[in-house]
Structures are given as C-alpha cells and as structure tokens.
From TrEMBL:
Protein name, UniProt field: LacI family DNA-binding transcriptional regulator
CDD domains linked: HTH_LacI, PBP1_LacI_sugar_binding-like
Ranges for domain HTH lacI-type: 6-60
Native organism taxonomy: Bacteria, Pseudomonadati, Bacteroidota, Bacteroidia, Marinilabiliales
PANTHER family named among the record's database cross-references: HTH-TYPE TRANSCRIPTIONAL REGULATOR GALS, LACI-RELATED TRANSCRIPTIONAL REPRESSOR
Keywords: DNA-binding, Transcription, Transcription regulation
Pfam families attached to this UniProt entry: LacI, Peripla_BP_3
Single Gene Ontology MF annotation: DNA binding
Record-linked SUPFAM superfamilies: lambda repressor-like DNA-binding domains (SSF47413), Periplasmic binding protein-like I (SSF53822)
PROSITE patterns assigned to the protein according to its UniProt record, in alphabetical order: HTH_LACI_2, SIGMA54_1
Family annotation (Gene3D superfamilies): 3.40.50.2300, lambda repressor-like DNA-binding domains
Amino acid sequence: MKSQPITIKDIARILGISPSTVSRALKDHPDISPKTKQLVQTFAEKVNYRPNALALSLRSSKTNTIGIVIPEIVHHFFSSVISGIEDVAYGRGYNAIICQTNENYQREVIDLQALVDNRVDGILVSMSKNTHEFTHFENLRENGVPVVFFDRICEQISSDRVIADDFEGARIATKHLIGKGCKKIMHLAAPQHLLIGKNRKEGFTSALKEHKLVSDDRYIIKCDTREAVFAKADDIIRLAPEIDGIFAVNDSTAIAAMQVLQRNGYSIPKDIAVAGFGDGPNANIAYPPLTTVEQKGYDIGQAAMRLLIGHIEGTVEDEEFETKIFTPELVERTSSQLGHNVR
C-alpha cells in the first residue's frame, strides 16, 4: 500500500512545535530562530517533505470568490454581518457564496469542503454551536485557504477573529438591571463550550459580584432559543416568584421568556425586568419593547472581510493574526423599568 505523504502537522507533532512555526521555518521567515529553521528544514529534507502540489496549484489562481459559513441566515445578527461583508467584498471585486449550517456539525464540514471544491479565495466562518471537533478547520489551513472567524470563533485554530465584547455586553446589560433595582436576576444562558456563551455568563456573574449580589446557580438556565424557553417554561415559572430580573443571552430568548411569564400572570416590567442581547428588529416591536445591547453586526462583517482580503491579497503575512473586538452598546427600552406598569 502506498504510504501517505508527510504533512506540516506531522512534522510539528514529531518535533514538538506548532504547525505555524513549521510553516514559517520552511518559508525562512525572519521571526523564526536560525536554530529552529535548521531543525525543521533538515528534518523536512530527511523525511522527503513536499508541499501539497494540488493545494499550491489551486491557490495560485484567484477566483475572486469568498465563502461565508453561518449557523442561521434568518438571525438578524448574521444577516447584518452578511450585509457588512458583501458591501466590502463587492467594493473590492469579490463575489460571495453563503452557506447555512443550521447548527449542524456535519453540514458545516460538507459546506466547507464544497467551498474548497469551488476554489474560493478565502472563507469567513461563524461556528455551529454543535461543533466540538475541528479537523475540518485545520484542513483549510493545511490546504492554504485563508480563514477568518467571526462571532463564534474556534479557539483551537490560529486565525484572525472578529467578535463583539460579549463579556462587556453582558456586564452592561446586567449592571443596567441592577441599576433599576433588580437584586435576584436569572440568566438564560448559551452552551458553555461556545466562547460567546461562556463570556456572556461571566459578564453576568461579574456584574453581580461588583454589586455584592449572590450568583445563584439555580438562576442560570441553559436556554438560548425560543423553543428551549417553552421547553423549560415550568422551570422558569417555578423560580419566577423568587426573581426580579432576567438577562437572556439573546433577544429571541428574552422575548420568549416575557411571553411565558405574561401567560402566567406576571407583568413585565412591573414584576420582573428583562434585558436581552442583539437588538434585532423584534426587540422594538416586542411587548413591552425590549431593553438589549446592540451587537454591531454590520461593523463586524466589514472588519472580517477586510482582514480576509489582507490574507488573500498578501498584504499581511500568512501567520500574522489579529483579533478585532467591538464593544456592544445598551439600548434601553420599557422592558427593564422594574416596578412600572405598561399601558
């Protein structure tokens, strides 16, 4: 049986260094020490390492097409990001292929491979919440495809990243509720393996700690969709007599929570104040209108596309990565005015 050709990842594993260090050493990058360059280059020659010829040939000709992989196109935040991406892309002569994973890992893998097969010049990705294995992202790097992550990033992959400051946004929303008189606040949380879920929960608990309020684990419920709110309605209603505020990880969850509470005789915000995260169109037409934090999706999309173009057009080094962070802003509406009747 024919043996598989050795890859950069194989060399990195054997020598105990990172793949990016191997890649730069093979390119004689000035940031790599002469000792490491000699080690890598000597070993590569010894094992007869050859760059992936197919990948090199594919990367040598531009298609002026980029791929976008998102969890849900119907989500206001992601549609705002796409608008920002496309405005920059079309202005620079690029077309976009948009793929929707529907939060499905297998579909994410298939979508990325389809984009590679269509020879896109680079890919912008917001990871599915059900992705726990990252070989498909590593394969993009191995094949020389530039990748920029936005919103839901993959911490295990070295890349450019564009994100909202989820910690600070959650902290702002929670401090606002506390400032309105809330002392026992429930958090409807996203999965904690996602950085956005982890950071928003930590921002929530940090605000409580700042004001010397107790963070009760019973008041943190994994619940980040409308469907999940309705599925856990009994849990929410059972705790409702104890709480005076809710901070939800996104707007759709916050609005669903208000509906569940209202159907069970609670007045929002007289009995329980509510704040969300995102500021989509539904926030302003909810009853009562929802206090939330604006996520700057359009700006995130523009920044992500500019970073990707830098790698495609070679104006930045392959292994030079940066993280751009946008701070959300509070949008105060009626839902957080604790103790007030809505007429």
